[in-house]
Design brief:
alpha+beta, 5-stranded mixed sheet, 22 helices, 20 strands, 35% helix, elongated
């Protein structure tokens, strides 16, 4: 599936939020699959008894709230079919008996089904509409058609259904029989699901859920019954399950044969502090060639994804949250995605930067690309960009993975390389998260796409460096090192953020970097602290709410910080240069200023630069959107 699509209403849709699709090649065992199912379905879904109990206690305030729980219950009841199988109604006489890739359900009757399901319908009718009564009743009718059709217990379903032969081995096995079958029973097509539209964001998501769940039972729900396999006749219709793809069947074969891979485990050693601190690098004192910043260019993503768009795309495994609550939690109102490729985004920023700096392909001595989301390994993105810029040869072109500290790392390496080359170095910071998020809610709330490129050149003899101080760090407790993971096989290889651990590493590194800056003398007055002569702090745009809180803990007021995360989201390595660019665009920077730019994040990496930025090095924003 595409990571996002624009439907005919010109709205963003995330297909993976509605259509569960697990990569079974990453699953090691039944226990591994069960843990994923438990996390995404079991822990979120109430039973029918719990729904009725919640209603009796007055928990539900509206029709929407009870419908949401009904939908989650159906997702849970269909948890294995949704993720593993395609259901097909087939004449019993035509069902192969001996194949190992055709399965049928073995069910336990639920005697109270009609009574309990009818009680849920009655409960719904007693509640007021949350927004639009007619829309909510329409969604309920579709949803209840599926919810109310179940006649069996769902809690005891096996992870892997029995094959036909296994089902027949016990003639008393109970399965599903369809009394009459219409092969033209209505089905919602993929585009219909994408084009679903409701005025209220929450109802649009619920409506899509109901369409997907409808497609799991493509038969008249009034025509189903439970039957013993011994009572089936050749002309009866039964429900047969086929693996959704080859990887599902291979997983089943591995489980059946006992050839499952053991889960990987690692030790968690107590971290040992370095024998002595890593001192800040004073560029004036330590380098003969002073780096000058000649250009900063950016490429914002061309598609805006608002918090309301996220609510319209609420996934079946998300806890409830409103658009305003996302803003309060993250400080983000929207993020930007690119409909183009990762490479196009990077190249757009690079071309603008070298053009603005006035350097040609014959001048560039090195290209450093800072990214943690590249899917390109050979050739590296940096060498690919070098070729696209028409560079016949560089001294070095390489990719650098330092995640959210990418810009400080990249500028540090560029400064070191320049000492030998005495030629311009191009640093490109680029991330495309939109195709690596899947249906993981924290990642979807936070990350965006974007790119920035900086050209560093040797300053003239006697000229002050634009890059004044820098430092970089990495590692820490393993919980912090693994606080952001991509690819993460436990989350279908999507990027995963563990918030408390990220906050711990961010607080640790931010305090360390501020202490260093406070202890350094100002280049303008050795009697003053460097921090006192910082005009603007542009931190990594991780999570505004978190950063403001951590800065306050360190004694910094929010008015010293610049954020653009509200409009672009967290773009990891690209976030600091994007923010510097936007500060010039927004008129926050109107004259040369000294900036402190700390970065921190995935892999427990961190770093900062203290640099002087003149507005004229920033490429005018009118030319910087890329798609």
């Amino acid at each position: 599936m595409q990571p996002f699509e624009l439907n005919r209403h010109n709205r963003l849709v995330f297909p993976s939020n509605f259509i569960p699709e697990l990569d079974f090649s990453t699953l090691t065992s039944i226990d591994h699959l069960d843990s994923v199912i438990r996390r995404d379905f079991d822990t979120k879904a109430p039973t029918v008894s719990e729904i009725l109990s919640r209603h009796a206690q007055g928990v539900y305030r509206s029709k929407f709230e009870i419908m949401r729980d009904m939908a989650l219950n159906v997702f849970w009841a269909d948890r294995f079919a949704l993720t593993m199988f395609d259901r097909r109604v087939t004449r019993w006489g035509d069902v192969p008996r001996n194949r190992d890739d055709i399965y049928m359900p073995r069910l336990t009757p639920w005697p109270e089904a009609d009574e309990r399901n009818s009680a849920v319908a009655d409960a719904y009718r007693t509640l007021p509409a949350a927004w639009e009564n007619s829309a909510e009743d329409r969604i309920f009718d579709r949803l209840f058609s599926v919810f109310g059709a179940r006649r069996h217990y769902a809690g005891d379903l096996p992870t892997v259904k029995p094959t036909v032969a296994q089902l027949l081995s016990d003639p008393e096995s109970i399965t599903l029989r369809v009394r009459t079958f219409d092969p033209n029973y209505p089905v919602f097509g993929y585009d219909q699901i994408l084009d679903c539209h409701e005025d209220v964001a929450e109802l649009e998501a619920l409506s899509r859920w109901s369409m997907v769940l409808h497609n799991q039972q493509l038969w008249d729900r009034n025509e189903i019954e439970l039957a013993r396999v011994s009572d089936l006749e050749d002309d009866d219709y039964v429900v047969v399950s086929h693996p959704r793809n080859r990887e599902v069947q291979r997983f089943i074969n591995r489980v059946a044969s006992g050839r499952t891979r053991p889960a990987t485990s690692f030790t968690r050693p107590e971290p040992t502090e370095p024998s002595k601190p890593y001192p800040a690098v004073d560029v004036r004192a330590e380098f003969a060639v002073a780096p000058r910043i000649d250009a900063i260019a950016v490429a914002h993503g061309d598609q805006v994804c608002t918090n309301e768009d996220l609510i319209r795309n609420t996934a079946y495994n998300w806890s409830p949250m409103s658009a305003d609550e996302i803003t309060a939690k993250t400080g983000i109102e929207q993020r930007r995605y690119t409909s183009g490729t990762f490479e196009e985004l990077a190249l757009s920023a690079a071309r603008q930067a070298v053009a603005h700096a006035g350097v040609g392909p014959e001048d560039i001595g090195a290209v450093i690309t800072c990214t943690c989301t590249s899917g390109r390994l050979i050739p590296s993105l940096a060498t690919w960009i070098s070729g696209e810029l028409g560079i016949s040869q560089t001294h070095a072109s390489f990719d650098l993975v330092a995640a959210c500290a990418g810009m400080p790392y990249g500028l540090a390496e560029a400064t070191r390389i320049m000492q030998q080359l005495r030629r311009p170095v191009l640093v490109v910071c680029v991330e495309k998260f939109s195709d690596k998020i899947g249906n993981v809610r924290p990642s979807r709330m936070i990350f965006g796409d974007g790119a920035a490129a900086l050209v560093l050149s040797p300053a003239a003899e006697g000229e002050e460096p634009d890059l004044e101080f820098f430092n970089t760090y990495a590692s820490g407790p393993t919980s912090q090192v693994n606080s952001i993971i991509w690819p993460n096989p436990d989350f279908d290889n999507a990027i995963t953020v563990y918030g408390p651990e990220v906050k711990s590493l961010a607080g640790r590194y931010l305090a360390q970097m501020l202490d260093e800056i406070k202890a350094l003398p100002s280049p303008d007055d050795a009697e003053r602290s460097l921090l006192d002569d910082i005009d603007l702090i542009v931190p990594h745009q991780a999570n505004k709410t978190m950063i403001v809180e951590l800065a306050a803990d360190a004694g910094l007021s929010a008015d010293r910080l610049y954020f653009n995360i509200e409009k672009v989201g967290n773009t990891s390595s690209a976030s600091i240069p994007l923010a510097i660019h936007d500060a010039v665009r927004d008129g926050v920077i109107t004259e040369p200023v000294r900036i402190f730019a700390p970065g921190f994040g995935a892999g427990a990496v961190a770093g900062y630069t203290v640099m002087r930025i003149a507005p004229e090095v920033v490429v005018p924003f009118e030319t910087t959107d890329a798609g």
